[in-house]
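Subject: Protein record for review, amino acid sequence with backbone structure tokens
Why sent: The fold of this protein is of interest and is recorded here as tokens.
Enclosed: The protein record, placed directly beneath this head.
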Amino acid sequence: MAIYVFAHTKGGVTKTTTAINMAAMRAADGRRPLLSDSDSGQSSARFINARKLADRTPELVDIPFVSLVSYMQDDHSWYQIDQDILKLAKKFDDVLIDAGGEGHGSPEIRMALTIADMVITPCGTSRPDTDRLAPMDAMIRDARVLNPKLKAVLFPTRASTNARSSDVIDFYRDVARFKQYEVLETVVRTRDCYTKWLTTGEAVFEQKKPPKAALTEMAGLYKEIFNGR
């Protein structure tokens, strides 16, 4: 059993898109993954709802799901989701957590990092997106005090499909300052198929005519993240 956290403190970087595609691919690969939505935006929950309503033959692969969001208790302490995740993890092959929050103070991200085997951070290639990696880098450093086995990986998303664009090169140059991360080789580019799950509940490989380039990107990312696990 392994715990994977998909996290970024900035929205719109394809964090949920990555988590739900990896969960669906994991299920199709014969594993039993648990997808946990621990982001207050509950985008993964929207994916699961759309999936349940999808009229598909054959049916979409089953993805067990739970929503776990921290909240302020009467004594002003945060409800701890980490122990709930550890209890649930015993029943599954993998746990994939979609975690988000603003800045250094995100309790969901912080708690998830203390029990995770790996944190995966998709990040847009623009400077505003990469600048927001600073709090993630700091939280990973802090989490490794309690969880020294934590692996952290980063990859560019929403990259331009224009072969003349330098955005990916600029991204690699910019993120070198974040020392807690290993940068993956996979580059995920801007494609319409990556947002179809919002209405159809489908991962990319489940779509009727997904672009080959998108399938290649998702397959590459899957291999790098799970690496035969």
